[in-house]
Structure prediction request, 119 residues.
Amino acid sequence: QVQLVESGGGLVQAGGSLSLSCAASGSIFSINTMAWYRQTPGKQRDLVASITNGGGTYYADSVKGRFTISTNNGKTTWYLQMNSLNPEDTGVYFCFTTRLEGATMRAYWGQGTRVTVSS
Prediction:
């Protein structure tokens, strides 16, 4: 089992910055890609950014050049630095990871942290 706890959401004006953190605990060995998703009302969760164990990163087109995903050395915490925020970035942000358990790749989600960007 892996537990994920996000922190760092809040209210910010357009053009501002926020940093989100996701702390992983439990059976964190063998976790794979670490990611951030965003969900807005009535829509599915969309992948915002991800980082692999090897450090490879992916960003959704809408956040490229503005958001940066990173991890600490032990890969027990990952971060999302969000700059130049705009109202379209508003939503609930969830951290996500997968872990190989036997022959099964199991997915884990945090509880979500709300980000609101005012215009």
Observations:
- The first strand starts at residue 2 and ends at 7.
- The chain is about 0% helix and 60% strand.
